[in-house]
Design goal:
Number of helices: 3
Number of strands: 0
CATH class: Mainly Alpha
Number of domains: 1
Radius of gyration: 18 Å
CATH architecture: Up-down Bundle
Order of helices and strands: HHH
Distance between the termini: 61 Å
CATH superfamily: Ribosomal protein S20
Largest sheet: none
Length: about 90
């Protein structure tokens, strides 16, 4: 437990930030999972519909400092490659 006033205040701030970060991370990962599932199922329409939303969520997480820039770029790159594979395969 924190002893000083400033440590108590910092603890409260950290709890709020952790809750916010957890929510953003969870939301972003959920979107990513939905896109991956659509890609694996070969559902081209759903994947194309989800793709811009997923990219936006990843950018938002980067902007808020939840994901590092490189991690976000890596996610975006890998998802784009997977999407391109099914787009080329289906025409």
């Amino acid at each position: 437990m924190p002893n000083t006033q400033s440590a108590k205040r910092q603890l409260r701030i950290n709890l709020r930030r952790r809750a916010r970060n957890k929510a953003i991370k969870s939301r972003t990962r959920t979107f990513i999972k939905k896109l991956r599932k659509a890609i694996e199922a070969g559902d081209k329409e759903t994947a194309l519909k989800l793709y811009p939303k997923v990219m936006s969520e990843i950018d938002r997480a980067i902007k808020k400092g939840v994901f590092h820039d490189n991690k976000g770029s890596r996610y975006k790159s890998r998802l784009t490659k997977k999407l391109n594979v099914i787009l080329k395969a289906q025409g």
